[in-house]
Amino acid sequence: MERSIRMKKEPLFHVVKKAEVSYGKTVMLSLLAVVIAIIAGGIFILAIGQNPFEIYASIVQGAWRSKIAAKGTIKIAIPLLIAALGITPAFQMRFWNIGAEGQIIMGGIFATYFALFLTGLPHWLLLILMFLAGAVGGGLWGLIPAYFKTKYGTNETLFTLMMNYIALYMIKYLTEGPWRDPASSGFPKIASFVPNARLDQIFGVHAGWLIGLILAVVMFIYLKFSKQGYEISVVGESTNTARYAGMNVKKIVIRTMFLSGAICGIAGMCQVSGAAYTLGEGIAGGVGFTAIIVAWLAKLNPIIILIVTVLFSMLDKGCSVMQSDFGLSPAVSSILQGIILFSILALDFFNRYRIVLRQRRKA
Amino acid sequence: MIINFLFAAIKAGTPLLFGTTGEIMTEKTGHLNLGVEGMMFMGAFMSFFVAYHSDNLVLSLLAAFAIGVFAAFIYAVLTVSFMANQNVTGLTLTIFGTGFAKFFGAMMIDEAGGSPKLSTKFLNAISEKSIPVLGDIPVIGKLLFSHNPLVYLAIVIAILCTVYMLKTRSGLNMRAVGENPGAADAAGINVTLTKYLHIMVGGGICGLGGAYLSLINGGGIWNNSSVVNGQGWISVALVIFASWNPAKAIIGSLVFGAFSVLQFYVPKNIIEIPNAFYVMLPFLITTFVLIVTSMKKSKEGSQPAGCGVNYFREER
C-alpha cells in the first residue's frame, strides 16, 4: 500500500497539563462547574415538560420541610458520609477500592452476629463490640484484595468489585439459613434486633451522624498531618518514589486497605444497628458505589466530602416528593445525579488541563 | 432433563454474552466501563418502548443498540477527551442508566394505565422456533437449533468480534491501543478515534443485552424494578472469566448461565446446597480466575495493560 506523505498542519488546538493551580481558582472553577451542572439538570427537567425552578425548589423543600423529612435526609447521609470517608485513603493511594459496598455488608454481618447472639451484655459494651466487629469485618474484606494486589499484582478494581457480590449473597445465605428468624413465617428474614443492640439516638437521629462527623475530622487530620497519611500520598503519586525513600509499600497498602475497609464496615454497623435494626439484602443498597462518586467529587477532602454528602442526600430525599407533587417517578433523582455528575466530571477537565490554540506563525 | 438444563443455561447466558462481548470491546481499547449495568438498563427500556409502539423487532433492537451507543458516547467523551476517572464515570453511567430506565419506564406504565404488554404478534416474532430440518435432529436439534432469534444474534456477534479482534488490521490496532496507547500513537494509529469507535460499539452491544432481558426474560411485560437486576455486573465478571476473548465468552456465558439455573435442576433430596451458594458461584469463580491469572503473570489471559489508565498524549 502506498501512502502519500503530506505535511500535516499543526492541529487546531492541543491540551496541556496545568502546573500548580491556585486554591482560589480551583474553588471558583468548581463552583462554576456546579452551577453549570445544575443548569444542565434544569435543561433535562425542561425537556420533560416541567419547570426547573419549581422542581429544584421542591427538592430542597422536600428534604428539609419538616422535622421528619430532615431526619430522613440525615439518615440517608450517614452511611454515605462514612463510606465515602472510608474510600478516601484507598483512592488517595490510587488503590481503586470499588468494594465499599461489600465492606459495608461485611461490617453489617459481623456486627449483627453480636446483636443476635450476645444480647445479654450491657448496652454500652454490646455497642462497642458491635462497632469493633463491624470495623474488623469490613477491614478483613478490604484486606483480602490488598494482600493479593501486593503479593501477585492482582487487579484490585475487579477483585473488590467481585467481593461486593460475594458479601451480598452471604447475607442471602444467612437470611435463608443459619440466622433465619424462626418466628417469621413465610418470607425468610433475620430477626429484628432487641432494643439493647440498637444504636442510641442523639437529637432524634441515630448516633451514626456523630460517628461520621468525628471520622471526618479524624480522617482530615490523619491524611493531612500524620506520617501515615503522608506515606499514603507518596505511594499514590509513585510507588517507585516510595520504595526509593525506604517505605515499605506492601505494608502501607495492606494497612491502608484495612483502614479503608474498616471505616466502610463501621458504616455497615451503623446501618444495621441504627437504621434497619436488622440485616437485610438491601443494607448497603448501592451506597458503596455512590460513596465512591462522592469521595471523588470532593477531591478526597474529608471536609468537602461532608458537604457533597449532604447535597447528595438532599437530592435523594427531596426527589421522594416528586411522585406526590408532580406525578414524576422518584427515579428522577438518579437521572439528575447522573447529569450533574457528568457535567462536573467533564468540567473538572479545565481544572487540570488547559487548551492551547494553534498560533499564527509570525512571518 | 440434562437437555432441558443446558437449554435453560443457554437462555440464561445469552444476555451475559451480549454484555460481555460489549465490555470486552471496550476494555480491549483500554477503558474499563463499569456502566454495563446502566447501558443494559437503557437498552432494556428503549427496546421495550419501541417494541411496544412499533411492533417491529428490528426497530426495537436498533433502538437498544442506538441508546447503548449514546450512553457509551457520554462515557467516551468524559474518559477519552476529558480524561475523567474511568471508575467514577462508569459508576455514574450505571446510576444514570438505571434512573433513566426506571423513570421513563414509570412514565410508560402511567401512559398505558398498568403494566404495558407486548402484542402477541411481537411475542411470536421473538418466540423460540425450531429451525426446519436441523431442529428435528434429536438432542442437538433442541440444544442448538430451537432458540429464540436473539440467541443466534448474540453468538454471531461474539464470533464476529473475535474474528475482528484477532484477524483484522483494525482489530490489531485496537488491541495495540489497549495495551500501549503511546506506542500505538507513535505508530500512526489514531488513538482517540479507535477508542471512541470501540467504546461506542461495545456500548451498543451491551444495549442489545438489555433488549434481551426486557423482551425475552420479561415475558413481554415491562417490569420497572427488576429488568436488569445485576446482570450487567455479572457480565463484567464474565469478561475476566473469558480472559478478554469473545469466543471464550460464548462458553463462559453458558457456564454462568448454567450456574444461574443450576439450583432448579439439582435434586434437593440428594445434595442440599443453600440457594445463595449458586448465585454466589459466578463471582467466587471469577475471583479465583482473577487470582490464578495474576499468579501465573500470564499476559495472554489478563486485562489489557492500558486498561483503566487514560491516555494523555503529552505525558509519556
Order of SSEs of chain B, N→C? Answer: HHHHHHHHHHHHH
Q: State the strand order across the main sheet of chain A.
A: 1-4
Strand content of chain A: under 5%
CATH class of chain B: Mainly Alpha
Helix content of chain B: over 70%
What is the string of SSEs of chain A from the N terminus onward? EHHHHHHEEHHHHHHHHHE
**Arithmetic mean pLDDT of chain A:** 86
Number of domains of chain B: 1
Instruction: Using the alpha-carbon principal axes, give the shape of chain B.
Output: globular
Gyration radius from CA atoms of chain B, angstroms: 20 Å
**Total E-strand runs of chain B:** 0
What is the count of β-strands of chain A? 4
Q: Give the helix tally of chain A.
A: 15
Average of the residue pLDDT scores of chain B: 87
The chain pair forming the largest interface, with residue counts per chain, is: A-B, 51 and 55 residues
Low-pLDDT runs of chain B: none
CATH topology of chain B: ABC transporter involved in vitamin B12 uptake, BtuC
Q: Biggest β-sheet of chain A: count, sense, barrel?
A: 2 strands, antiparallel
Structural commentary:
The complex is a heterodimer of chains A (363) and B (316). With 363 residues, chain A is mainly α. Chain A has a domain at 77-302. Chain A has helices spanning 23-47, 52-64, 67-92, 100-117, 123-152, 156-176, 208-225, 227-237, 239-244, 249-276, 287-297, 302-318, 322-326, 332-347, 349-352; strands at 13-17, 201-202, 205-206, 353-357. In chain A, the strands form two sheets. Chain A has a two-stranded antiparallel ribbon with strand order 1-4. A two-stranded antiparallel sheet of chain A has the order 2-3. In chain A, a hairpin with a 2-residue loop joins β2 (201-202) and β3. In chain A, α2 (52-64) packs across α12. The longest helix of chain A is centred in the middle third of the chain and has 30 residues, at 123-152. Chain A is globular. Chain B has 316 residues and is mostly helical. In chain B, 70% of the residues lie in helices and 0% in strands. Chain B is globular and about 55 Å long. The mean pLDDT of chain B is 87. Classes of the chains: A mainly alpha (363), B mainly alpha (316).
